[in-house]
Amino acid sequence: DAGITQSPRHKVTETGTPVTLRCHQTENHRYMYWYRQDPGHGLRLIHYSYGVKDTDKGEVSDGYSVSRSKTEDFLLTLESATSSQTSVYFCAISESRVSNTEAFFGQGTRLTVV
Amino acid sequence: SQQGEEDPQALSIQEGENATMNCSYKTSINNLQWYRQNSGRGLVHLILIRSNEREKHSGRLRVTLDTSKKSSSLLITASRAADTASYFCATDEGGGADGLTFGKGTHLIIQP
Fold first, then answer.
1. Between the CA of residue A78 and those of A7, A85, B73, what are the distances in Å?
2. B13 CA to chain A: closest CA distance, Å?
3. Is the pLDDT confidence value at B53 over 90?
């Protein structure tokens, strides 16, 4: 696997609580992405980053925020978790825009909001 | 919105047979990629085919791309039990927001 570590790997949280998921890479890749994977929907892009402090929204960004203060770390925050955010979250990295190259994925974080 | 849509949703074949999966998409693309996901794991990149390419090979994998029909196929030859996984096609949005757009995947089961 490419050097991507997601933490935590599993988390159960209560509705209304804030949650932060971390993605850490050792590849020095410029681009980082957060996806969620749900049955019947495949993977959907939440947010992505194209450099330190440079982020943009994806298809399903409502209820999520991100931050990237260092090249190696990309944080995904659920400000107030809801049951609809129960999902498996994947971080991905790529050296350049994915219109040009492949993406490498982390192992995923399974989040359950009760 | 789903850009790539795989067909079939599920496929079960005997070990040694060939497996073919198809993907359709809706808008113009720069490239189309195929990924594999084993149960409970992250996605692994298999192959990338650019819009100006028609066919590409990698080991037992053969990918075709027909931009006029907005479709692609992934052929796995001489399947093995280890090929059991879900397979996803993914496309870029051709110059707009970054990030890949995935289909819902084909779940492939190789029977021993």
1. 14, 8, 37
2. 23
3. yes
